[in-house]
Amino acid sequence: MSGPEPTPPAPSDEAQAPASTGIRAPAWSSSAERGSVLAIQATVFIATFLGRGFGRLVARVVAFYYWLFAAGARRHAAAFLTRVHGRAPRAADTYRQILRFAQTTLDAFFLVAGKTGHFRVTSHGHHHLAALQQSGRGALLLGAHLGSFYAMRAQSEVKGLPLHAVVYTKNAQRINAALERIDPGKNATLLQMGEGVDFVLKIKELIDGGALVAILADRVPATSEKGGARAVSVDFLGAPARFPAGPYLLASMLKCPVFVTFGIYRDPDRYDLHCEPLAERIELPRGNREEALRGVVQEYARRLERFATMAPDNWFNFYDFWER
Q1: Rounded Cα gap, residues 273 and 324, in angstroms
Q2: Any long-range contacts for 282-291 (C-beta under 8 Å, 24+ apart)?
Q3: Considering just the CA atoms, what is the radius of gyration of the chain in Å?
Q4: Spans of all domains in the chain
Q5: Rounded Cα distance, 37 and 40, in Å
Q6: What is the model's pTM?
Q7: Dist CA 243 CA 145 (whole Å)
Q8: Is the peptide bond before 8 cis (omega within 30 degrees of 0)?
Q9: CATH code for 19-314?
Q10: What is the DSSP letter of 163?
Q11: What is the rounded distance in angstroms from the CA atom of residue 228 to the CA atom of residue 90?
Q12: Under 8 Å between Cβ of 144 and 218
């Protein structure tokens, strides 16, 4: 990307919407960025001059700091791991989840700078995107805050796939600015999350031109004027969870293929990239629009659940995902 992905906020306690709205804003969208300017500049220095090995030592210290002092992050990590494993996690399990967040964030600086020699990358389902490229067709890629999107971004450059990412950067402006400064700006570009006809037409123009447009589809954005963006409640790990409706409404208007994509991190240096078709075309007929919408969101949630269960330490939603 020419800039950052929709980076999960540094683990922190929840934040609420102003009392006048009467509605709780999604904790992820209002979480303050904990990293100081100095700390982020130090990370850039490590990535540039001291190398990944030294950076990984620092990441362990940083992760332990957050594990000690970000009580909300520990609590929500434990809630997720309890649902995955059916038992209360050990302290080492919640620390490992926060550590993976720190490690993949560090790796993002290397991947953005084009230093891919540090990593082993495996691709599962890449042939789907290769076939699209040969046919000149574009597609919508739905990801999640699971693992790293940067690994897929780096691979898109290696394979020559034009990749554009729709992002929400408000919650991580400092780290995003740092990443943007070292971004080589090759085949992937950044699209700020927007609304209205102009935004839809921009996405349509890209996809009609054969580009891939990626959206992380696991978080409901806050829209203060309307009290919250539209969401669909479906089953996820045994309980109702809210997912954004926007990506699927957009896909139904674009009439394009839709894929789910995840970049799973495996310690110490491997990223497993997965791409699966979700729908050749999302149809939302007027007669049963809500039912059809819930069905496709549930299918996305089912795929996300499978990969999250496969790599629970890659889950980077450090807030109450099942919040009512």
Answers
A1: 32
A2: 282/248, 282/251, 282/252, 282/258, 283/252, 284/248, 284/249, 284/252
A3: 19
A4: 19-314
A5: 5
A6: 0.85
A7: 13
A8: no
A9: 3.40.1130
A10: E
A11: 35
A12: yes
What is the token pair recorded at 238? 């045994």
Torsional sign, CA 238, 244, 249, 254: negative
Distance of CA 237 to the CA centre of its chain: 18
How large is the angle between the packed helices 197-208 and 246-254, nearest 10 degrees?
A: 60
| Rounded-to-integer distance, Cα 167 and Cα 191, Å | 6
Determine the 3-state secondary structure of 145 from DSSP.
Answer: coil
Return the exposure string of 303-320: e unless at least 16 CB atoms fall within 10 Å of the residue's CB, then b.
Answer: bbbebbeebbbbbbbbbb
| Residue position matching structure tokens 């929840």 | 14
Local confidence pLDDT in tens for the 324 residues of the chain: 333 343 333 444 333 333 333 334 445 444 444 555 566 667 777 777 888 999 999 899 989 999 999 999 999 999 999 999 999 999 999 999 999 999 999 998 888 888 899 999 999 999 999 999 999 999 999 999 999 998 998 888 888 888 988 877 555 556 666 666 666 555 556 777 777 788 899 999 999 999 999 999 999 986 544 555 799 999 999 999 999 999 999 999 999 999 999 999 999 999 999 999 999 999 999 999 999 999 999 999 999 999 999 999 999 999 999 965
- Cα distances from 125 to residues 130, 151, 158, 288, in angstroms, run 9, 15, 16, 32
Would you list the DSSP string of 260-318? EEEEEEETTTEEEEEEEEEESS----GGGHHHHHHHHHHHHHHHHHHHHHH-GGGB---
How many DSSP H helices and E strands does the chain contain?
11, 9
* Order of strands, sheet of 258-266, starting from the edge strand that comes earlier in the sequence: 120-124, 270-279, 258-266, 139-143, 212-216, 163-167, 188-192
Q: Do the bridges between strand 258-266 and strand 163-167 make them parallel or antiparallel, or are there none, so unpaired?
A: unpaired
